[in-house]
């Protein structure tokens, strides 16, 4: 079996975003695990409008060209880790919108989260876990929560994320869990394809 391919999705597009810092940090940790492939996927590269299709792409093909390109990119991966900034006790609108612009491409794949902000982005992550379930993803229990004190220390240049042992431990735990689920679900999805081909033969 080929190595599972994991997307590290940058879940904010603001000019002043913090998201690049945790993405680069966890990408380095993820790449040290030799049994997965990792790619950073930046929502800035997919300037999706607010959802304006006649229906979900689960039912009707999307007409928007950026949406079509986004769906093809999402389909390339066997699992996802999203950065989750917390805005007003929830995730960023741009990330929720990106989730809504794909459907079957997310199905039967694991989703993990790196939260930051108030209470380590925990409320944003909890909402995203519910969205992931509705999209037939398997959200992991393991997550990274960068609490406000750690966030400020990094933002102000006093420390780097890699200086915090508890965050490194959380990141490795998340990568290990994502990897396990990505491998297991990849095998299951491939078996589904073989079963469908056998039925059609």
Automatic annotation (TrEMBL):
<dbReference type="Pfam" id="PF03358">
    <property type="entry name" value="FMN_red"/>
</dbReference>
<feature type="domain" description="NADPH-dependent FMN reductase-like">
    <location>
        <begin position="4"/>
        <end position="143"/>
    </location>
</feature>
<dbReference type="InterPro" id="IPR050712">
    <property type="entry name" value="NAD(P)H-dep_reductase"/>
</dbReference>
<dbReference type="InterPro" id="IPR005025">
    <property type="entry name" value="FMN_Rdtase-like_dom"/>
</dbReference>
<protein>
    <submittedName>
        <fullName>NAD(P)H-dependent oxidoreductase</fullName>
    </submittedName>
</protein>
<dbReference type="InterPro" id="IPR029039">
    <property type="entry name" value="Flavoprotein-like_sf"/>
</dbReference>
